[in-house]
Amino acid sequence: MTPASTFAGQKLALFGLGGSGLATVHALKAGGADVIAWDDSPESAERARGLGITVSDLREADWSGVAALVLSPGVPLTHPEPHWTVGLAKAAGIPIIGDIEIFCRERAAIAPDAPFVAITGTNGKSTTTALIAHVLAQAGYDVQMGGNIGTAILSLQPPSRERIHVVELSTFQIDLTPSLKPGVGILLNLTPDHLDRHGTMEAYAAIKERVVASADLAILGVDDAHCAAIAGRRSGPMIRVHVAGHGDAAADLVASEGRVLEGDTVLADLDGIGSLRGAHNWQNGAVATAAARAFGVEGDALAAALKSFPGLAHRMEQVGRRGRVLFVNDSKATNADSTEKALTAFHDVHWIVGGKAKEGGIAPLSALFDRVAHAYLIGASSKAFAETLEGRVPYTFCETLDVATGRAAEAAAASDAPEPVVLLSPACASYDQFRNFEIRGDRFRELVTALG
Length: 452
Known about the structure:
Protein-Tyrosine Phosphatase, Chain A; 15 helices; 22% strand; cell division; peptidoglycan synthesis
Protein backbone atom coordinates (compact mmCIF):
# COMPACT_ATOMS: atom_id res chain seq x y z
CA MET A 1 0.00 0.00 0.00
CA THR A 2 0.98 3.63 -0.55
CA PRO A 3 -0.24 5.61 2.50
CA ALA A 4 -1.56 8.98 1.29
CA SER A 5 0.29 11.12 3.82
CA THR A 6 -0.16 14.31 1.79
CA PHE A 7 -3.80 14.41 2.92
CA ALA A 8 -3.05 13.85 6.62
CA GLY A 9 -5.53 15.66 8.84
CA GLN A 10 -7.81 16.58 5.94
CA LYS A 11 -11.39 15.58 5.30
CA LEU A 12 -12.19 14.08 1.90
CA ALA A 13 -15.34 12.90 0.19
CA LEU A 14 -15.05 9.77 -1.96
CA PHE A 15 -17.54 8.35 -4.42
CA GLY A 16 -17.24 4.84 -5.87
CA LEU A 17 -16.49 1.83 -3.68
CA GLY A 18 -15.28 -0.68 -6.24
CA GLY A 19 -11.78 -2.15 -6.09
CA SER A 20 -9.84 1.08 -6.64
CA GLY A 21 -12.23 3.02 -4.40
CA LEU A 22 -11.69 0.67 -1.48
CA ALA A 23 -7.91 0.77 -2.00
CA THR A 24 -8.06 4.57 -2.03
CA VAL A 25 -10.01 4.74 1.23
CA HIS A 26 -7.50 2.45 2.95
CA ALA A 27 -4.54 4.49 1.61
CA LEU A 28 -6.09 7.79 2.72
CA LYS A 29 -6.91 6.46 6.18
CA ALA A 30 -3.40 4.98 6.51
CA GLY A 31 -2.02 8.44 5.70
CA GLY A 32 -4.12 10.11 8.38
CA ALA A 33 -7.05 11.49 6.35
CA ASP A 34 -10.71 11.50 7.37
CA VAL A 35 -12.81 9.96 4.58
CA ILE A 36 -16.56 10.02 4.00
CA ALA A 37 -17.41 7.49 1.30
CA TRP A 38 -20.52 6.68 -0.70
CA ASP A 39 -21.66 4.52 -3.60
CA ASP A 40 -25.00 4.40 -5.41
CA SER A 41 -24.87 0.60 -5.18
CA PRO A 42 -26.31 -0.58 -1.83
CA GLU A 43 -24.24 -3.77 -2.11
CA SER A 44 -20.98 -1.85 -2.52
CA ALA A 45 -21.85 0.49 0.33
CA GLU A 46 -22.69 -2.40 2.62
CA ARG A 47 -19.49 -4.25 1.73
CA ALA A 48 -17.49 -1.11 2.60
CA ARG A 49 -19.24 -0.82 5.98
CA GLY A 50 -18.25 -4.39 6.69
CA LEU A 51 -14.63 -3.34 6.15
CA GLY A 52 -14.90 -0.62 8.76
CA ILE A 53 -15.25 2.27 6.29
CA THR A 54 -17.38 5.28 7.18
CA VAL A 55 -20.19 5.26 4.61
CA SER A 56 -22.57 8.19 4.44
CA ASP A 57 -24.78 9.63 1.70
CA LEU A 58 -22.81 12.54 0.23
CA ARG A 59 -26.07 14.31 -0.68
CA GLU A 60 -26.56 14.85 3.04
CA ALA A 61 -22.94 15.66 3.92
CA ASP A 62 -21.54 19.01 5.08
CA TRP A 63 -19.16 19.91 2.23
CA SER A 64 -17.82 23.07 3.87
CA GLY A 65 -14.81 21.32 5.42
CA VAL A 66 -14.07 18.92 2.56
CA ALA A 67 -10.66 19.32 0.90
CA ALA A 68 -11.41 17.33 -2.28
CA LEU A 69 -13.80 14.89 -3.92
CA VAL A 70 -12.10 11.65 -4.90
CA LEU A 71 -14.09 10.26 -7.83
CA SER A 72 -13.99 6.77 -9.28
CA PRO A 73 -12.78 6.92 -12.91
CA GLY A 74 -15.87 4.99 -14.00
CA VAL A 75 -18.13 7.86 -12.93
CA PRO A 76 -18.92 10.58 -15.53
CA LEU A 77 -17.01 13.80 -14.93
CA THR A 78 -18.35 15.75 -17.94
CA HIS A 79 -20.26 13.60 -20.46
CA PRO A 80 -22.95 12.55 -21.15
CA GLU A 81 -23.65 14.63 -18.05
CA PRO A 82 -21.70 15.14 -14.82
CA HIS A 83 -22.47 12.82 -11.93
CA TRP A 84 -24.44 14.44 -9.11
CA THR A 85 -21.37 14.43 -6.85
CA VAL A 86 -19.54 16.57 -9.42
CA GLY A 87 -22.20 19.24 -9.09
CA LEU A 88 -21.95 19.18 -5.30
CA ALA A 89 -18.16 19.45 -5.39
CA LYS A 90 -18.22 22.36 -7.84
CA ALA A 91 -20.83 24.14 -5.75
CA ALA A 92 -18.53 23.75 -2.72
CA GLY A 93 -15.56 25.01 -4.76
CA ILE A 94 -13.38 21.96 -4.13
CA PRO A 95 -11.15 20.03 -6.57
CA ILE A 96 -12.22 16.72 -8.09
CA ILE A 97 -9.40 14.17 -8.26
CA GLY A 98 -8.76 10.43 -8.63
CA ASP A 99 -6.48 7.84 -7.11
CA ILE A 100 -3.72 8.48 -9.68
CA GLU A 101 -3.60 12.12 -8.55
CA ILE A 102 -3.20 11.00 -4.95
CA PHE A 103 -0.27 8.81 -5.99
CA CYS A 104 1.30 11.68 -7.98
CA ARG A 105 1.07 14.02 -5.01
CA GLU A 106 2.61 11.39 -2.75
CA ARG A 107 5.45 10.82 -5.22
CA ALA A 108 6.11 14.56 -5.47
CA ALA A 109 6.23 14.82 -1.67
CA ILE A 110 8.33 11.81 -0.69
CA ALA A 111 10.31 10.77 -3.80
CA PRO A 112 10.02 13.24 -6.70
CA ASP A 113 12.73 11.41 -8.67
CA ALA A 114 11.08 7.99 -8.28
CA PRO A 115 10.89 6.26 -11.69
CA PHE A 116 7.33 6.47 -13.03
CA VAL A 117 6.32 5.11 -16.45
CA ALA A 118 2.79 6.04 -17.58
CA ILE A 119 1.25 4.32 -20.61
CA THR A 120 -1.89 5.27 -22.50
CA GLY A 121 -3.46 4.96 -25.95
CA THR A 122 -6.62 3.57 -27.47
CA ASN A 123 -5.35 0.05 -28.11
CA GLY A 124 -2.42 -1.99 -26.86
CA LYS A 125 -1.82 -0.14 -23.60
CA SER A 126 -2.36 -3.17 -21.33
CA THR A 127 -0.03 -5.40 -23.35
CA THR A 128 2.60 -2.65 -23.50
CA THR A 129 2.30 -1.97 -19.77
CA ALA A 130 2.71 -5.65 -18.93
CA LEU A 131 5.56 -6.05 -21.42
CA ILE A 132 7.54 -3.10 -20.04
CA ALA A 133 7.01 -4.31 -16.48
CA HIS A 134 8.11 -7.82 -17.46
CA VAL A 135 11.26 -6.65 -19.25
CA LEU A 136 12.32 -4.40 -16.36
CA ALA A 137 11.59 -7.09 -13.78
CA GLN A 138 13.60 -9.63 -15.76
CA ALA A 139 16.46 -7.14 -15.73
CA GLY A 140 16.40 -7.16 -11.92
CA TYR A 141 14.48 -3.98 -11.17
CA ASP A 142 11.93 -3.67 -8.37
CA VAL A 143 8.81 -3.11 -10.50
CA GLN A 144 5.30 -2.19 -9.39
CA MET A 145 2.61 -2.52 -12.10
CA GLY A 146 -0.93 -1.22 -11.80
CA GLY A 147 -3.48 1.40 -12.70
CA ASN A 148 -6.02 0.64 -15.41
CA ILE A 149 -4.48 -2.79 -15.97
CA GLY A 150 -6.22 -4.10 -12.87
CA THR A 151 -4.31 -3.37 -9.65
CA ALA A 152 -5.25 -0.10 -7.98
CA ILE A 153 -2.23 2.21 -7.91
CA LEU A 154 -2.54 2.91 -4.19
CA SER A 155 -2.39 -0.84 -3.51
CA LEU A 156 1.18 -0.79 -4.81
CA GLN A 157 4.29 -0.16 -2.75
CA PRO A 158 5.15 3.55 -2.25
CA PRO A 159 7.26 5.46 -4.79
CA SER A 160 11.01 5.21 -4.24
CA ARG A 161 14.14 5.99 -6.21
CA GLU A 162 14.91 2.25 -6.17
CA ARG A 163 11.47 1.19 -7.46
CA ILE A 164 9.86 1.62 -10.90
CA HIS A 165 6.11 2.14 -11.14
CA VAL A 166 4.74 1.06 -14.52
CA VAL A 167 1.17 2.31 -14.74
CA GLU A 168 -1.53 2.05 -17.40
CA LEU A 169 -3.81 5.08 -17.58
CA SER A 170 -7.25 5.48 -19.14
CA THR A 171 -8.58 8.86 -20.22
CA PHE A 172 -10.95 8.75 -17.26
CA GLN A 173 -7.98 8.46 -14.89
CA ILE A 174 -5.92 11.11 -16.68
CA ASP A 175 -8.86 13.52 -16.52
CA LEU A 176 -8.77 13.25 -12.72
CA THR A 177 -4.99 13.78 -12.44
CA PRO A 178 -4.11 17.47 -12.81
CA SER A 179 -0.54 17.10 -11.47
CA LEU A 180 0.42 14.17 -13.73
CA LYS A 181 4.14 14.31 -14.57
CA PRO A 182 5.66 10.89 -15.30
CA GLY A 183 9.34 10.31 -15.86
CA VAL A 184 8.48 8.38 -19.03
CA GLY A 185 5.16 9.10 -20.74
CA ILE A 186 3.95 6.78 -23.50
CA LEU A 187 1.17 7.37 -26.03
CA LEU A 188 0.65 4.45 -28.42
CA ASN A 189 -2.17 5.42 -30.77
CA LEU A 190 -5.50 7.23 -30.99
CA THR A 191 -8.72 6.12 -32.63
CA PRO A 192 -12.30 7.12 -31.70
CA ASP A 193 -13.31 5.52 -28.39
CA HIS A 194 -15.33 6.52 -25.32
CA LEU A 195 -16.67 9.57 -27.14
CA ASP A 196 -19.86 9.25 -25.11
CA ARG A 197 -17.70 10.20 -22.10
CA HIS A 198 -15.56 12.86 -23.77
CA GLY A 199 -17.86 14.50 -26.32
CA THR A 200 -15.48 14.82 -29.26
CA MET A 201 -12.38 13.14 -30.65
CA GLU A 202 -10.48 16.38 -30.10
CA ALA A 203 -11.36 16.37 -26.39
CA TYR A 204 -10.41 12.70 -26.10
CA ALA A 205 -7.04 13.28 -27.80
CA ALA A 206 -6.31 16.35 -25.66
CA ILE A 207 -6.70 14.31 -22.48
CA LYS A 208 -4.41 11.56 -23.80
CA GLU A 209 -1.82 14.15 -24.82
CA ARG A 210 -1.29 15.18 -21.20
CA VAL A 211 0.60 11.92 -20.52
CA VAL A 212 3.38 12.85 -22.95
CA ALA A 213 3.14 16.64 -22.70
CA SER A 214 4.10 16.58 -19.03
CA ALA A 215 6.66 13.74 -19.17
CA ASP A 216 10.42 14.10 -18.83
CA LEU A 217 10.78 11.67 -21.75
CA ALA A 218 7.94 11.05 -24.23
CA ILE A 219 7.63 7.87 -26.31
CA LEU A 220 5.06 8.32 -29.07
CA GLY A 221 3.57 6.07 -31.70
CA VAL A 222 3.22 8.33 -34.74
CA ASP A 223 1.19 6.19 -37.14
CA ASP A 224 -2.09 8.10 -36.82
CA ALA A 225 -2.76 11.76 -37.50
CA HIS A 226 -3.65 12.70 -33.93
CA CYS A 227 -0.48 11.22 -32.43
CA ALA A 228 1.65 12.67 -35.21
CA ALA A 229 0.24 16.11 -34.43
CA ILE A 230 0.93 15.62 -30.72
CA ALA A 231 4.52 14.65 -31.53
CA GLY A 232 4.81 17.84 -33.57
CA ARG A 233 3.85 19.89 -30.53
CA ARG A 234 6.28 18.13 -28.18
CA SER A 235 9.35 20.25 -27.39
CA GLY A 236 11.14 18.06 -24.84
CA PRO A 237 13.03 14.75 -25.20
CA MET A 238 11.05 12.34 -27.39
CA ILE A 239 11.30 8.98 -29.12
CA ARG A 240 8.95 8.53 -32.08
CA VAL A 241 7.96 4.98 -33.02
CA HIS A 242 6.64 4.03 -36.47
CA VAL A 243 5.33 0.71 -37.78
CA ALA A 244 6.34 0.16 -41.40
CA GLY A 245 3.33 0.02 -43.69
CA HIS A 246 1.20 2.20 -41.39
CA GLY A 247 1.62 5.58 -43.03
CA ASP A 248 4.77 7.48 -43.88
CA ALA A 249 6.06 8.95 -40.63
CA ALA A 250 9.37 10.42 -39.52
CA ALA A 251 10.53 8.27 -36.62
CA ASP A 252 13.44 7.43 -34.33
CA LEU A 253 12.56 3.73 -34.10
CA VAL A 254 10.86 1.70 -36.83
CA ALA A 255 9.15 -1.66 -36.38
CA SER A 256 9.28 -3.64 -39.61
CA GLU A 257 8.55 -7.34 -40.16
CA GLY A 258 8.95 -8.04 -36.46
CA ARG A 259 12.25 -6.22 -36.05
CA VAL A 260 12.79 -2.99 -34.11
CA LEU A 261 15.25 -0.80 -35.99
CA GLU A 262 17.19 2.33 -35.13
CA GLY A 263 18.47 3.28 -38.56
CA ASP A 264 20.08 0.06 -39.82
CA THR A 265 20.70 -1.31 -36.33
CA VAL A 266 18.41 -4.09 -35.09
CA LEU A 267 17.55 -3.39 -31.46
CA ALA A 268 15.09 -6.25 -30.99
CA ASP A 269 13.68 -9.18 -32.96
CA LEU A 270 10.06 -10.11 -32.19
CA ASP A 271 9.76 -12.77 -34.88
CA GLY A 272 8.61 -16.10 -33.47
CA ILE A 273 7.40 -14.68 -30.14
CA GLY A 274 3.84 -15.98 -29.98
CA SER A 275 2.72 -13.45 -27.37
CA LEU A 276 3.84 -10.60 -29.65
CA ARG A 277 2.36 -11.76 -32.93
CA GLY A 278 0.98 -9.22 -35.41
CA ALA A 279 1.89 -5.72 -36.58
CA HIS A 280 0.13 -4.08 -33.63
CA ASN A 281 2.45 -5.98 -31.31
CA TRP A 282 5.42 -4.72 -33.33
CA GLN A 283 4.42 -1.27 -32.09
CA ASN A 284 4.01 -2.56 -28.52
CA GLY A 285 7.41 -4.26 -28.73
CA ALA A 286 9.13 -1.21 -30.21
CA VAL A 287 7.70 1.09 -27.53
CA ALA A 288 8.74 -1.37 -24.81
CA THR A 289 12.21 -1.50 -26.35
CA ALA A 290 12.45 2.30 -26.17
CA ALA A 291 11.29 2.32 -22.55
CA ALA A 292 13.66 -0.51 -21.56
CA ARG A 293 16.64 1.26 -23.13
CA ALA A 294 15.78 4.36 -21.08
CA PHE A 295 16.55 2.20 -18.05
CA GLY A 296 19.67 0.65 -19.56
CA VAL A 297 18.14 -2.67 -20.65
CA GLU A 298 19.20 -3.70 -24.16
CA GLY A 299 21.10 -6.34 -26.11
CA ASP A 300 20.91 -9.94 -24.88
CA ALA A 301 19.08 -8.98 -21.68
CA LEU A 302 16.33 -7.28 -23.67
CA ALA A 303 16.10 -10.16 -26.17
CA ALA A 304 15.75 -12.78 -23.42
CA ALA A 305 13.08 -10.76 -21.61
CA LEU A 306 11.01 -10.23 -24.76
CA LYS A 307 11.12 -13.94 -25.61
CA SER A 308 9.93 -14.91 -22.13
CA PHE A 309 6.93 -12.54 -22.14
CA PRO A 310 3.84 -14.71 -21.52
CA GLY A 311 1.33 -12.21 -22.89
CA LEU A 312 -1.94 -11.17 -21.31
CA ALA A 313 -5.14 -13.10 -20.81
CA HIS A 314 -7.88 -12.24 -23.33
CA ARG A 315 -5.51 -10.35 -25.66
CA MET A 316 -4.64 -12.69 -28.55
CA GLU A 317 -4.03 -15.32 -25.88
CA GLN A 318 -3.14 -18.71 -27.37
CA VAL A 319 -5.26 -20.96 -25.15
CA GLY A 320 -4.66 -24.31 -26.80
CA ARG A 321 -4.13 -26.50 -29.83
CA ARG A 322 -6.08 -29.45 -31.11
CA GLY A 323 -4.11 -31.08 -33.86
CA ARG A 324 -3.33 -28.37 -36.40
CA VAL A 325 -5.96 -26.01 -34.97
CA LEU A 326 -4.83 -23.05 -32.87
CA PHE A 327 -7.38 -21.51 -30.46
CA VAL A 328 -6.95 -17.81 -29.68
CA ASN A 329 -8.81 -15.88 -26.97
CA ASP A 330 -9.06 -12.21 -27.96
CA SER A 331 -12.09 -11.40 -25.84
CA LYS A 332 -10.61 -8.00 -24.97
CA ALA A 333 -11.30 -6.95 -28.58
CA THR A 334 -14.46 -4.99 -27.87
CA ASN A 335 -14.34 -2.84 -30.99
CA ALA A 336 -13.50 -3.27 -34.66
CA ASP A 337 -10.14 -1.55 -34.34
CA SER A 338 -9.00 -4.12 -31.77
CA THR A 339 -10.28 -7.04 -33.83
CA GLU A 340 -8.43 -5.69 -36.86
CA LYS A 341 -5.17 -6.45 -35.06
CA ALA A 342 -6.10 -10.10 -34.58
CA LEU A 343 -7.40 -10.63 -38.12
CA THR A 344 -4.22 -9.09 -39.49
CA ALA A 345 -2.11 -11.56 -37.50
CA PHE A 346 -3.76 -14.77 -38.80
CA HIS A 347 -5.00 -16.51 -41.94
CA ASP A 348 -7.64 -19.26 -42.30
CA VAL A 349 -9.65 -17.79 -39.44
CA HIS A 350 -12.78 -19.38 -38.00
CA TRP A 351 -14.03 -16.18 -36.42
CA ILE A 352 -16.35 -16.08 -33.40
CA VAL A 353 -17.79 -12.57 -33.45
CA GLY A 354 -20.63 -10.64 -31.87
CA GLY A 355 -22.14 -9.21 -28.72
CA LYS A 356 -23.26 -5.67 -27.97
CA ALA A 357 -22.06 -3.82 -31.07
CA LYS A 358 -20.13 -0.54 -31.09
CA GLU A 359 -20.85 2.20 -33.61
CA GLY A 360 -19.91 1.09 -37.13
CA GLY A 361 -20.07 -2.60 -36.30
CA ILE A 362 -17.63 -4.75 -38.30
CA ALA A 363 -17.88 -2.84 -41.59
CA PRO A 364 -14.41 -1.28 -41.04
CA LEU A 365 -12.95 -4.82 -41.17
CA SER A 366 -14.16 -5.58 -44.68
CA ALA A 367 -10.66 -5.39 -46.18
CA LEU A 368 -9.69 -8.34 -43.97
CA PHE A 369 -12.65 -10.58 -44.76
CA ASP A 370 -10.51 -12.63 -47.14
CA ARG A 371 -8.65 -13.94 -44.08
CA VAL A 372 -11.87 -15.39 -42.64
CA ALA A 373 -12.83 -18.94 -43.61
CA HIS A 374 -16.14 -18.77 -41.73
CA ALA A 375 -17.82 -16.50 -39.18
CA TYR A 376 -19.80 -17.78 -36.20
CA LEU A 377 -22.24 -15.13 -35.00
CA ILE A 378 -23.18 -14.75 -31.35
CA GLY A 379 -25.13 -12.23 -29.31
CA ALA A 380 -27.30 -9.21 -30.00
CA SER A 381 -25.33 -8.05 -33.05
CA SER A 382 -25.88 -11.23 -35.07
CA LYS A 383 -28.46 -9.95 -37.53
CA ALA A 384 -26.60 -6.70 -38.26
CA PHE A 385 -23.28 -8.50 -38.69
CA ALA A 386 -24.84 -11.07 -41.00
CA GLU A 387 -25.95 -8.23 -43.27
CA THR A 388 -22.36 -6.93 -43.38
CA LEU A 389 -20.95 -10.38 -44.15
CA GLU A 390 -23.59 -11.41 -46.69
CA GLY A 391 -22.02 -12.51 -49.98
CA ARG A 392 -18.50 -11.96 -48.68
CA VAL A 393 -17.94 -14.38 -45.80
CA PRO A 394 -19.89 -17.57 -45.05
CA TYR A 395 -21.48 -17.37 -41.63
CA THR A 396 -23.53 -19.38 -39.15
CA PHE A 397 -25.94 -18.06 -36.54
CA CYS A 398 -24.84 -19.66 -33.25
CA GLU A 399 -26.41 -17.34 -30.66
CA THR A 400 -24.16 -18.49 -27.78
CA LEU A 401 -20.42 -18.91 -27.30
CA ASP A 402 -20.56 -22.61 -26.50
CA VAL A 403 -22.36 -23.41 -29.74
CA ALA A 404 -20.00 -21.20 -31.75
CA THR A 405 -16.88 -22.73 -30.23
CA GLY A 406 -18.02 -26.28 -30.95
CA ARG A 407 -18.96 -25.57 -34.54
CA ALA A 408 -15.82 -23.55 -35.23
CA ALA A 409 -13.62 -26.31 -33.81
CA GLU A 410 -15.28 -28.95 -36.01
CA ALA A 411 -14.98 -26.87 -39.16
CA ALA A 412 -11.38 -25.87 -38.45
CA ALA A 413 -10.38 -29.50 -37.86
CA ALA A 414 -11.84 -30.43 -41.25
CA SER A 415 -9.97 -27.61 -43.00
CA ASP A 416 -7.06 -28.25 -45.37
CA ALA A 417 -5.21 -25.17 -44.08
CA PRO A 418 -1.81 -25.80 -42.45
CA GLU A 419 -2.79 -23.90 -39.27
CA PRO A 420 -6.48 -23.04 -39.07
CA VAL A 421 -7.29 -20.66 -36.24
CA VAL A 422 -10.41 -20.56 -34.09
CA LEU A 423 -10.44 -16.92 -33.03
CA LEU A 424 -12.70 -15.36 -30.43
CA SER A 425 -12.38 -11.68 -31.29
CA PRO A 426 -15.90 -10.33 -30.83
CA ALA A 427 -15.47 -6.67 -31.92
CA CYS A 428 -18.24 -6.03 -29.40
CA ALA A 429 -18.86 -5.38 -25.74
CA SER A 430 -19.90 -8.44 -23.77
CA TYR A 431 -22.82 -7.00 -21.83
CA ASP A 432 -25.59 -8.75 -23.74
CA GLN A 433 -24.48 -12.19 -22.47
CA PHE A 434 -21.52 -11.73 -20.09
CA ARG A 435 -20.84 -9.25 -17.29
CA ASN A 436 -17.44 -8.37 -18.76
CA PHE A 437 -14.94 -9.45 -21.40
CA GLU A 438 -12.89 -11.39 -18.82
CA ILE A 439 -15.79 -13.71 -18.04
CA ARG A 440 -16.43 -14.14 -21.77
CA GLY A 441 -12.77 -15.03 -22.36
CA ASP A 442 -12.64 -17.37 -19.37
CA ARG A 443 -15.67 -19.21 -20.72
CA PHE A 444 -14.01 -19.61 -24.12
CA ARG A 445 -10.88 -20.99 -22.44
CA GLU A 446 -13.03 -23.50 -20.52
CA LEU A 447 -14.77 -24.58 -23.71
CA VAL A 448 -11.45 -25.10 -25.50
CA THR A 449 -10.07 -27.10 -22.58
CA ALA A 450 -13.15 -29.30 -22.65
CA LEU A 451 -12.48 -30.13 -26.32
CA GLY A 452 -9.31 -31.98 -25.25
